[in-house]
Specification:
5 helices; alpha+beta; 438 residues; 5-stranded mixed beta sheet; 2 domains; 29 strands; disordered N terminus; Rossmann fold; single chain; Neuraminidase
Length: 438
């Protein structure tokens, strides 16, 4: 019996070995087949690509999500601590991170990340990040403040993987007491270095940066006493008239490459969309709506389309048309009977922010052209004049408090709304933003 069982086990073993040898031969034949060979090479390349992507993702210092803060959001919300041997640096860095919807400031013992900023020579700051894993980098800038803000932006990039906006520059219309006479000013994001560009003691309105940030176009009553377009060169501190046709000349938004300017001119009888070359040649009328008023014209991120508001259907709505002219297409925002001040998201071209009438005032909405849906991203005091920041997530808007206006940063993901300056600073409205490369 035992011998029988041994023989039986031996027979099974021999059969299994024969099958394995047969499979090996078959696999060898398949490997020699060109089609299978290509498939195996493709699989190898795919695995290599995945490894490269994994290495790229490893550049982000992941400390996990804060479940109680982020909830059902699409973005992380981190507890951070900000430290520095310089009290001034620490205060300014905290002010910067307080504007961002993904960060809440805590003590170091309770934080997921600790950001430390230390002076590192003239116009340089050493950034140290603890949490996840340690990261250090020395960041330079055009000034000590610029270096600090750029170091804060590096911390954002390293922890959530998107650009920071703290080293950006804002231009806005300013008046001390909310009066009609306003001036054009520029400032950093933490309002440490504010510079007044005009001093006309007249209404100076609707400023727009050129893509390089070296020029500002605005509407003013300088010299003529009528609404004309002016261009300020920030490098040479000079100003020139850009458009001074009969009627009103307003707007002045640059194309993404800086070669063209979109504006609203009423020289043909009623306010229409026009474009021109940035050297003040080639003025061309784009819209032809004799019974309507157009406003707030600007370019799409690729420069092929124009977006603007028009009351062609009795009340202002958002329209798009080709940059060379043609059919106006209304965007079905479906949230308000009054929609104006559209601004196209340069990071995600499917998103357009705009101002819409809501209740007894206005709020800012974001329309998703892919989903064909709008959502309100502001709340509280009447809010208007949205402009996207360079991360494609946050907006700067103006909130109204009586006759005074105050600039806020609004996070379209978390709903965070944070003031950029104190109420005592004055009345600030109609912002624009630019982020210059270092």
């Amino acid at each position: 019996m035992r011998n029988f069982l041994r023989l039986r086990r031996l027979a099974k073993f021999l059969r299994r070995r024969a099958k394995r040898e047969k499979r090996v031969e078959k696999r060898a034949d398949l490997w020699d087949c060109p089609t299978i060979m290509i498939g195996r090479v493709f699989a190898l390349l795919f695995a290599t690509a995945c490894a490269v992507c994994a290495n790229a993702q490893s550049d982000i210092l992941d400390a996990g999500y804060v479940a109680g803060d982020s909830g059902q959001l699409n973005v992380p919300v981190y507890r951070i601590a900000v430290t520095s041997p310089s009290q001034e640096m620490e205060t300014l860095a905290k002010r910067a991170f307080n504007l961002h919807g993904s960060y809440k400031i805590y003590r170091p013992a309770d934080a997921q990340f600790v950001f430390d900023f230390a002076p590192a020579g003239e116009n340089s700051v050493k950034l140290s990040i603890k949490g996840g894993r340690v990261y250090e980098q020395t960041v330079s800038g055009s000034s000590s403040l610029d270096a600090l803000m750029r170091a804060c932006d590096v911390a954002v990039q390293k922890t959530i993987g998107t650009p920071g906006f703290f080293a950006g520059t804002i231009v806005f219309s300013y008046s001390k007491n909310g009066g009609d006479n306003t001036e054009i000013c520029v400032s950093d994001m933490v309002f440490q270095k504010t510079r007044r560009l005009t001093g006309d003691n007249k209404a100076s309105l609707m400023p727009h940066f050129s893509p390089s940030g070296n020029k500002v176009m605005y509407t003013g009553y300088y010299r003529s006493g009528f609404m004309d377009l002016y261009e300020i060169n920030l490098l040479s501190n000079t100003r020139r008239t850009f458009a001074s046709f009969k009627g009103s000349n307003t707007g002045g938004a640059f194309s993404p490459d800086g070669s063209k300017v979109a504006m609203i001119l009423s020289t043909s009888g009623n306010p229409e969309v026009w474009i021109a070359n940035a050297d003040r040649t080639g003025f061309k009328r784009i819209t032809r709506t004799p019974n309507a008023v157009e406003s707030s014209a600007s370019f799409s991120p690729d420069g092929t389309k124009l977006i603007f508001a028009s009351d062609d259907r009795t009340k202002p709505q958002i329209y798009v048309c080709p940059v060379g002219g043609g059919k106006m297409t209304r965007l079905p925002t479906n949230v308000s009977g009054y929609c104006s001040e559209p601004t196209w998201n340069k990071v995600n071209p499917n998103l357009i922010a705009f101002t819409g009438a809501s209740g007894k005032g206005f709020q800012v909405f974001v329309y998703d052209m892919a989903a064909h849906k709008s959502k309100c991203v502001s709340s509280g005091a009447s809010t208007s004049s949205p402009v996207w920041l360079n991360d494609g997530r946050h907006l700067i808007c103006a909130k109204a408090f009586g006759k005074m206006r105050r600039l806020y940063v609004i996070d379209t993901e978390t709903g965070s709304q944070k003031p950029l300056h104190s109420a005592e600073y004055g009345s600030l409205k109609e912002p624009d933003f630019v982020y210059k490369a270092n």
